[in-house]
Amino acid sequence: MSDSVTALYNQSEYPSMSHPSMHPAVIAASALLAGFRAPCPSTARILEIGCSTGHHILPMAVAYPHATFTAIDVALPAIHQARADAKELGLTNITFHHADLLEWLPDDGPYDYILAHGFLSWVNDALKEKLLSFCHTHLASGGVACISYNTLPGWALRLPIAEMAKTLRKDDKQESNIDIYQLLDSATQGATSPYAVHLRSIILDAQAKGQQQLSFDDMGPINDPCYFSQFIQWMRHAGLSYIGESDQSLEDPNHLPWGALSIIPQWEGDPLLQQQLADLLTGRTFRNSIITGKHQQQEPVRLQELLELAIEVRGLLPTTEQQELELFHQRLRDLQPRCVTLKEAIDHYQINAATLIPHIIFLARNGTIRLRQGAIDFPEHIPSHPVLTHLARIQMQRGAPLVDAYHNPCQLSDEFQQVLQASIVEATPVGENAGIWEILRRRGLLGFQLR
Ligand SMILES: C[S@@+](CC[C@H](N)C(=O)[O-])C[C@H]1O[C@@H](n2cnc3c(N)ncnc32)[C@H](O)[C@@H]1O
């Protein structure tokens, strides 16, 4: 198994991506919204399966020095790179194993968090089964796993497009996957039928993922999406329970057509069926599902618990005529770039918390904010000779996206790249690049402190 899987990936190109919704701080907040209490991330035992070069887990090990991290991947070159980066960062709280999940016996479990991004839909059936039975055996009591997968029917037309792209590519291996998608896009020009419009929108959507993600997702060696209901079946079979989705914004009912909003409540007694119906109506293609051992108790979330969650502002907070909401929005705007708890944001103006909570959940559901466990402090000023954090410098040297304090990947423009490359060689005065350094400060790329 190990050899064949390793051979499937191009040796020089392992996935290097961070996935903000697969961060324990976000998983814990999403689990709480669903009425489950996950362990505190800053002291947790965290395992990542299929960690590739460690791009996702290394920033967590830097940010949480008191947590313990374990990561495995079957691809040896990727593990070599991950270990080299951990060593350069001086990390002692993370261990990378070169191992095949089918055979691996951990010696440091059980785990509070098991993360498997880009794994379930990208491996064969034996490994799918193993992943879920592994979670059942190695999750600590009260621990949670977060598993991502591609979903049907959202992938129904994407799969044949990817298959065709692979077939067309065989004749000319010089072309990149993006080139092939561009070719397919050109082939749809001039067609106006609803089918052609739909086809083109999917081709464009795939292209927008960029070369690397396209290669590991649509064009990956294995890409085997499943229905949400299938996932639930597999999970129950393994003795696990479903908690909810870690991606708070994809739970937004506004994604649904108004017709659906009047019909879906009829199945209130069967929330899983409601989710499957919503997947059909929205064409959803991806899930980050949070699961747990069977005996985790669900209890309604209390106001005090919600107030301890911190807020990442991701979009523009709208102006509103409702005075209390506008006061809250203004407070969040004024606090930027600080990431404070709801309690801290609200206490300042003595805003009534109970009336604000539904609005806060609405903002999380539509992607304007993301709730997380743990506030973040950013440096108050740009130093006279700023430099990127050690981790960001390593990512930059590797040509990988930088990971900000919220675990978002940052694609830098050429102008940013030039300034940063120069500062890596020698710390230079801020000078005329103050605007660039200010953006980096606000993203925590000049350092940040978790509270
Ligand atoms: C699609 S990549 C996803 C990488 C990363 N988690 C991400 O989402 O960006 C799948 C990863 O799983 C690893 N993998 C596949 N089969 C495995 C196995 N049997 N045991 C451990 N790792 C495996 C691959 O080497 C690869 O790094």
Overview of this structure, please?
This protein has 451 residues and is of the alpha/beta class. It has four domains: 2-153 and 223-293, Rossmann fold (3-Layer(aba) Sandwich); 158-216; 309-377; 390-450, no CATH class. 42% of the residues lie in helices and 16% in strands. Strands 1, 2, 3, 4, 5, 6, 7 and 8 form an eight-stranded mixed sheet that branches. It has a two-stranded antiparallel ribbon with strand order 9-10. A two-stranded antiparallel ribbon has the order 11-14. A hairpin with a 5-residue loop joins strand 12 (402-403) and strand 13 (409-410). Mean pLDDT is 90; it is low at 1-12. Bound molecules: S-adenosylmethionine (SAM). S-adenosylmethionine binds at residues 1, 5, 9, 14-15, 17, 50, 52, 72-75, 78, 100-102, 117-119, 122-123, 127, 216, 220.
